[in-house]
């Protein structure tokens, strides 16, 4: 009942349904677009694209060129890095492994063959097949020159190995190793992205995968080049389950949750630690975000204060709550005792922003400043003695031992911005388990966030939620993620305007994504001068 | 696991010494001798200078506490101490590697977001001699990371951290050991035709991209060309170096033990793979990242992560010391594996120049003075060995790089950029 009222109340301000974008309260400024970016496919994009095309059952390589972040995002790093010589080899092996699967599985092959070959060699049929799949893989129609090169290759393969399949295997392997597949070559025409480039941008942003046939068709027939057509496609993509994957990819990148796969904790110190903790913790956070963004279409900032969270039995035991089901994840209610709620009470943050055998006020505080508030945290200066005093009879807790961070003016300049936040989370140890004491002394988790006092993790969560920098920070990160670029000089006024509208929408991420992709900035580009 | 070395040695015995050192074209190596190899052996988070520096200088010196694990190879190494990275110290754990590996300052965008501005020394050497072998260079590590082997700004060669994957890359499909009848996979020719189509695609794209993206595409293409060259190599006769043999197949995985990587085991396997990769002349350049800057890995017997420990451990840091000793022990074991491979009248290690170094000296304060440098091997007699050189005046570490480059046969005016540039080598270590 409450949600209906909430929805009705919101109706007055903006439309209710998730993908209804309100008319912008603040018109977006016309900005100078940045230069085109040519991101290479991230590991996840490579896998999603191929599984979307050839089915979930496709076995994909687990070792590919690693992704590296720039400006805090893998999405931005993808525009700056290339593929190493080892990476080229890995993509080559992957290409053959995939092509062989597609051509040996009867069901796969039946789908792949868009015509029936008339014999061992059938250049016309090979051409039809390569034209279809090449368009999906290159995310644009193939030029005649490209097609004829591929057809010649398949004929060579079919002749050498005396099967039509062997030729197609080479053709598909060539497509899968081509820079036109491995790099997103999204170029402009007369100051705007071409329709196929726009389709690619749209789908990698919203789905973290290449465009589907319908989106390519909209690019081909001109629909995507109209404002209505673009909005229609954006709404369609957002309503598709693959958009959940897209949103998960964004938050995994932003919160650096990919590091959780290689979490490194001392099991002799943390008796509740098991090697799958990182993976489970990541799933918890992503499920909560998915629920807030899609199921509830709620205020993004809920992730900071929600007391409902998805846990499995292992995480339930870590948090001291009863699991909702024997198998898998289910949403449980967190008790207010202990102060655990929101992202800052989750192991994905608490364990990642900690040391292998202890917590860390600095790493936790730095995450809040950098990632949630987009504030600059300078690196530690060189030439300092950074030794943390051992616990003594009078200084047992981290707060007491770290006191120099806040009393020495040289340290305090930076640490006064980070440590108080992290000390507010000291009730959670290095893997996120609750503790009342540190080295036998009670923990004082009170502090102050930019003038807002808090007494414990519970009220700290509220203070972060209420912080005025949170909405703009999210908008800036999402914009950079969507455009695979950072620090474009013109981004500031656009981000201000997007933020105003994000706030007016009730901080709804779907609404922000829709406005972002339909904005001029997403469609315009500076032309290249090679 | 023993198969590689015993087998390799067995092959070598009985072959006339002059006939075994011909390369694939049947021509003797450049100066009639054996190929020179270059390697980086890198670890993260520095040392403890007080417990590192040897006592005595020149040929008369004794190993320090932290260098004691190198006792068995003391006569093969030169320790250089007292030199400084001059490229500036702006980013803790970032400026040091840039200085010691590229001689040039970092490009810093914001915070800890940085890149080398120039290629690292392994790639400078690979550009010169990498074309002689199937792999221009090999990069490896104990843990996954994007590494520190740079082709130039924002362009790295990520290390392989799986011994199993590295084994397959070098000795898997298509590799022919000496004495084996080469079986040419007919698919190789087809794979090369596929790469031609890939190259044509890249060629068409080139003109449509802006300058920076053209460079990125070019890097990718370099990789494709190399792969093509590698396939061509497989179709030819493999090099017939005497000690070449296929090493034992590593395990598919080496799971952590109590949250601690199995450093010793992985290092031994990696050492054997590199020894044979070089003995079989599959590459002449490598960079091995035993650990990375700022790594917080748990070492056996140590109570917290390495990086944390360097900053937090009070007093004279006995646990940090224990970690450094473990690292240098691994380095010693690596060198022993190379020395165990006979080549000509000497060993594989003699024909290598290996730069052992790290990202800071004293980890606690991120110092770049009194930089830890160990050189192993003599690059076929171009470098001295068994020395301790102590710089009296904090000389530029790039001098060492200049000596290494010249020892590897590069003709250069100097190396490094700005304050890191040196035109002079370090005469004391040159033969």
Question: What is the secondary structure topology, with strand pairs?
Answer:
The complex is a heterodimer of chains A (530) and B (431).
Chain A: H1 2-13, H2 43-54, H3 74-77, H4 85-104, H5 106-112, H6 123-138, H7 144-161, H8 164-177, H9 179-182, E1 188-189, E2 192-193, H10 195-207, H11 213-220, H12 227-239, H13 242-254, H14 277-295, H15 302-305, E3 308-311, H16 313-319, E4 330-333, H17 347-350, H18 361-372, H19 398-401, H20 404-407, H21 409-423, E5 437-438, E6 441-442, E7 447-449, E8 452-454, H22 457-466, H23 470-483, H24 491-504, H25 509-518, H26 520-523
Antiparallel strand pairs in A: 1-2, 3-4, 5-6, 7-8
Chain B: H1 3-12, E1 37-42, H2 49-52, E2 77-81, H3 95-102, E3 106-110, E4 113-116, H4 121-129, E5 138-141, E6 150-152, E7 155-156, H5 163-171, H6 187-206, H7 211-235, H8 263-279, E8 285-289, H9 306-312, H10 318-339, E9 342-343, E10 346-347, E11 352-357, E12 373-376, E13 387-390, H11 398-407
Parallel strand pairs in B: 1-8, 1-11, 2-13, 5-8
Antiparallel strand pairs in B: 2-12, 3-4, 6-7, 9-10, 11-12
Average predicted local confidence, pLDDT of chain B? 89
Name the average pLDDT of chain A. 91
Beta-strand content estimate of chain B = 5-15%
Low-confidence stretches of chain A: 1-18
Cα radius of gyration of chain B in angstroms: 21 Å
Q: Return Rg of chain A in Å.
A: 26 Å
In the CATH hierarchy, what is the superfamily of the largest domain in chain B?
Alkaline Phosphatase, subunit A
Biggest sheet of chain B, strands in spatial order?
A: 5-8-1-11-12-2-13
Tally of contiguous helical segments of chain B? 11
Give the termini separation of chain A.
60 Å
How far the N terminus sits from the C terminus of chain B, by CA atoms, comes to: 36 Å
User: What portion of residues of chain B is helical?
Assistant: 25-40%
List keywords for this structure.
heterodimer; A: 530 residues; mainly alpha; two-stranded antiparallel ribbon; 26 helices; 8 strands; disordered N terminus; B: 431 residues; alpha/beta; Alkaline Phosphatase, subunit A; 7-stranded mixed sheet; 11 helices; 33% helix; globular
